[in-house]
Amino acid sequence: MRAAVLRTFREDLSIEAVPDPDCEEDGVVLRTLACGICRSDWHGWSGHHPRVKPGQIPGHEYCGEVVAAGPRSGWDLGAQVIAPFILACGDCASCRAGVSNTCPDQRLPGFVEPGAFAEYIAVPHAHNLTRLPQGMSPVLAAGLGCRVTTAFHALTDRAALAPGEWLAVHGTGGIGLATLILGRALGARVAVVDVVPQKLAHARALGAELALDAREGDVAQAIRDATSGGAHVSVEALGIAQTTNASLHCLRPLGRHVQVGMPSGPHARMEIDMSAVYQKNLALFGTRGMPSHKYPSLLGMIEAGLVDFSPMIGREVALSQAGAELALFDGPMAPGVAVISDFQG
């Protein structure tokens, strides 16, 4: 099959012919219909992700068609499915407790084993998969596996965002956009922070009441002033110290900070203003992924027309363009996310 392979950190991906994947007993093999290009892929491409090594096929936000099914997979050939990026075992204490995104035996295509920057992908633990809703495009569905699911779990579970509360979003890349869109759908008032004017304009068009340029002063103070005391919930969506501290500083007393951005490489350890946490009685939450059993709730909102994620999709690209797209994460980017939809180009 054709695949984009990471051979050298921070260099273009190598388009190669590699062996087709094998199907495990509890898994499936998918013909990849679409795969998102995510900042987490960039962490691996940059050499900042501790699990990603040269030789890796990236890609963890994917939608595909079942072309092979193991005897314990529970899926039929031809089914079109969406995959979460965390493939939990289903048997451990975490999985039985309903927090499968913390499964200690999770499988991670795209990071530890071959991912979906390829024509086919092997998916073990296929009980994690969810059927593609009728009428949903594979390109849109590909964005649900990481950015949207992580944002959904962050807001509905970790932060328990309530209607009428102020939500601050620091960074309006893919996961920041998903957080904005979901926050609005859940009845929150949303403030966003970025440094790219086009992204701020895009956020305003999607319903952000405040769209602040971080280069133009103290955004935390601006949020506190505009919200009569500070945001109730603040989501950090980049994984760096500057935005993490801005997130803490923009909160009102008893506010909730959610760390959605992945701190990696030189940002894995940060200097954080813990005095603000102490003085304001703040709650800090980490979040990563979403338990797969929550897919029906998320997809139900989409199918009912309560939320529309199509504005997240910025462009469709060919497999051969994936490396160039990863390099774009080095600097300010245009609004929207890139999705691979052509695996021959």
Write the layout of secondary structure elements.
Elements: E1 2-5, E2 14-17, E3 28-37, H1 39-46, E4 61-69, E5 80-82, H2 93-96, E6 120-123, E7 130-131, H3 138-142, H4 144-158, E8 166-170, H5 174-185, E9 189-194, H6 197-205, E10 210-213, H7 219-226, E11 231-236, H8 241-249, E12 251-259, H9 274-280, E13 283-286, H10 295-303, E14 313-318, H11 322-328, E15 337-342
Parallel strand pairs: 8-9, 8-11, 9-10, 11-12, 12-13, 14-15
Antiparallel strand pairs: 1-2, 3-4, 3-6, 3-15, 4-5, 5-7
Helix pairs in contact: 4-5
Task: Please give a handful of descriptors for the protein shown.
6-stranded parallel sheet; Quinone Oxidoreductase, Chain A, domain 1; globular; 7-stranded mixed sheet; Rossmann fold; 345 residues; 11 helices
CATH-defined fold name of the largest domain? Quinone Oxidoreductase, Chain A, domain 1
The CATH class assignment of the largest domain is Alpha Beta
Largest sheet data: 7 strands, mixed
User: Structural class per helix/strand content?
Assistant: alpha/beta
* End-to-end distance: 13 Å
The value of Rg in angstroms is 19 Å
Number of β-strand runs: 15
Oligomer: single chain
Low-confidence stretches: none
The best one-word shape is: globular
**Total number of helices:** 11
